[in-house]
């Protein structure tokens, strides 16, 4: 089998697994949500990270069935979490373009038993291109789902999409988080812009306590990174779904 066929089989045979990384409230030291991050339990090569198969999935269009599986699986997992933390799921541009995408999201929520208000969909700047996407995002919002811009600041797009696309959350790429302790004017400007647009800010890739302190002082309420937890399988969330310290 070639790599595409192997991935296709993996989706059908449930060789994919979801890991979850906590998103924490920096003030309360408590889990606010989890981001679902897909892995592939390859029968021969072991556990593969998304970097080893998401690009292939995007090139071949397999990202559509893969993403559908992720959404359904994650909604089912999240419905059982104690304390009702929210669920954040990455969505590729090709998924947004599917005519039935909004219905698929609604079905995943209904079948999994998850309230729409607990779902955040993460899209990248590069998938925000036209009227079609804007319409899809509006429809998702009408379902009660919230929307996040992922890896903010790393795309090549202008900021004009912030006017055209309804957004709730801005995930600040870890390349900016790294400068948190250096009195970075760029990071301050990103936070100020996010705040003035009424967006929830989530700096990613927080690894040091000093970074968390600096980001909280800047006005970020939430954060994500290895300091608080690495992505782990759903079974290992028991306990941390309620509280981290
Ligand atoms: O887990 P890790 O940090 O290696 O993830 C690397 C990248 O893979 C991230 O940019 C993330 O957005 C992407 N990714 C992880 N899971 C999914 C998924 O379910 N769907 C899509 N489209 N991308 C994902
Ligand atoms: O692109 P996206 O933000 O969806 O993917 C998150 C990726 O960042 C995952 O692959 C995750 O494993 C990785 N990640 C999460 N926290 C940290 C961190 O603190 N440091 C580093 N280097 N990577 C992280
Ligand atoms: Mn993400
Ligand atoms: Na990101």
Say what the CATH topology is.
Answer: TIM Barrel
Average pLDDT number: 93
Strand percentage, roughly?
15-25%
Question: How would you characterize the largest beta sheet?
Answer: 10 strands, mixed
Give the uncertain stretches in residue-range form.
none
The helical percent reads 25-40%
> Based on helices, strands and strand pairing, what is the structural class?
alpha/beta
Number of self-contained structural domains? 1
What would you say this structure looks like, in words?
- The structure is a single chain.
- This protein has a single domain (20-32, 61-232), classed as Alpha-Beta Barrel (TIM Barrel).
- It is built from ten helices and ten strands.
- The chain has helices at 3-12, 54-60, 63-78, 93-97, 101-112, 131-143, 161-164, 174-177, 185-196, 209-218, and strands at 16-25, 30-42, 46-48, 86-90, 119-124, 146-152, 169-172, 200-203, 222-224, 232-233.
- Strands 1, 2, 3, 4, 5, 6, 7, 8, 9 and 10 form a ten-stranded mixed β-sheet that branches.
- The radius of gyration is 18 Å and the shape is globular.
- It comes from Solirubrobacter ginsenosidimutans.
- This is EAL domain-containing protein.
- Residues 1-245 form the EAL domain.
Task: Give structural attributes.
245 residues; alpha/beta; TIM Barrel; 10 helices; globular; binds manganese (II) ion; EAL domain-containing protein
């Amino acid at each position: 089998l070639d790599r595409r066929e192997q991935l296709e089989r993996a989706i059908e045979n449930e060789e994919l697994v979801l890991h979850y990384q906590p998103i924490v409230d920096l003030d309360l030291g408590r889990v606010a949500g989890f981001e679902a991050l897909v892995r592939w339990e390859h029968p021969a090569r072991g556990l593969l990270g998304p970097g080893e198969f998401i690009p292939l999935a995007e090139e071949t269009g397999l990202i559509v069935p893969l993403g559908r599986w992720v959404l359904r699986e994650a909604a089912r997992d999240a419905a059982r979490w104690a304390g009702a933390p929210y669920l954040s799921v990455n969505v590729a541009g090709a998924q947004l373009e599917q005519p039935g995408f909004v219905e698929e999201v609604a079905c995943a929520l209904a079948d999994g038993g998850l309230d729409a208000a607990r779902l955040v969909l993460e899209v990248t700047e590069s998938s925000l291109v036209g009227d079609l996407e804007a319409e899809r995002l509006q429809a998702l919002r009408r379902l009660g789902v919230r929307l996040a811009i992922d890896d903010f600041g790393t795309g090549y797009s202008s900021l004009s999409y912030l006017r055209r696309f309804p957004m709730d959350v801005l995930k600040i790429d870890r390349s900016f988080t790294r400068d948190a302790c250096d009195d970075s004017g760029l990071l301050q400007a990103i936070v100020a812009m996010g705040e003035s647009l009424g967006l929830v800010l989530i700096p990613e890739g927080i690894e040091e306590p000093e970074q968390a302190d600096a980001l909280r002082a800047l006005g970020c309420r939430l954060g994500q990174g290895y300091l608080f937890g690495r992505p782990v399988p759903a079974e290992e969330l028991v306990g941390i779904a309620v509280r981290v310290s």
